[in-house]
Amino acid sequence: MRSWRFYVYALMRDDVIVYIGKGSGDRLKSQRRRYKCDGHEIARFKREDDAYTFERHAITEHCPELNCHPGGNGSRVQPIKESAALAKQRRESERDYREMHEMGTRRWTAKFLLSLDLSRVYEPSKVDEVRCQLTEVLNGPRC
After folding, report:
1. What residues make up the domain containing 40?
2. Mapped to the 3 state alphabet, what secondary structure does 81-95 carry?
3. Alpha-carbon radius of gyration of the chain
4. Cα–Cα distance, 39 to 33 (Å, whole number)
5. Residue-level pLDDT at 23
6. Mean pLDDT of the region 10-28
7. Whether residue 56 is found in the same domain as residue 24
8. Is it the case that residue 12 has pLDDT exceeding 90?
9. Cβ–Cβ contacts within 10 Å for residue 24, how many?
10. What percent of the chain has pLDDT over 70?
11. Which of 85, 138, 139 is nearest to 112 (CA)?
């Protein structure tokens, strides 16, 4: 048995890491063909567990676009879970899109602008006039 059998590798496009994986044998060669990327070994390991640990750390550090799993257990590992902040942002975006579709973009934009502090954009004498115009658009017919 070869002493440094396992390795962690990086696939790159335009000098940017797009994938990090763990392999042995010809794995790097086949992945370079599959993804049509340049690639090289990052580190070698005697124990597979050490290689998996390093792979997880490298994926967390570099966040490559092609890695859909956090690494560390081959294809048996669960996909990367969406963070609470990203999930909230996605839900809000979906809600805004649905609301915009139901209201129409002009009315939705008027509602959004009314929620802002218009005194930061307009001089105080104009704020009431602009609010009145936006309210007319908001309450008017759907365009």
Report:
1. 6-76
2. CCCHHHHHHHHHHHH
3. 26
4. 10
5. 92
6. 92
7. yes
8. yes
9. 15
10. 89
11. 138
pLDDT tier at 75 (50, 70, 90 boundaries)?
A: low
Sequence-ordered alpha helix ranges (H) in 1-143:
27-35, 48-62, 84-103, 105-114, 124-139
Cβ-Cβ contacts under 8 Å for 10 (sequence gap 6 or more): 17, 19, 20, 39, 40, 42, 58, 62, 64
User: How far out from the chain centre does Cα 138 lie?
Assistant: 34
Whether residue 107 lies inside any domain: the answer is yes
Length of the chain: 143
Listed in sequence order, the residues at least 6 apart from 120 whose beta carbon sits closer than 8 Å to its beta carbon are none
Query: Are 103 and 111 in contact, with CB atoms under 8 Å apart?
Result: yes
25 domain residue, yes or no: yes
CA separation for the pair 39, 66 (Å, rounded) = 14
* 17 closest CA partner among 71, 63, 75, 60: 63
Note whether residue 58 is domain-resident: yes
Cross-strand pairs, 22 = 8
CATH of the domain at 39: 3.40.1440.10
* Top-confidence residue, 97 or 29: 29
Say what the pTM is: 0.51
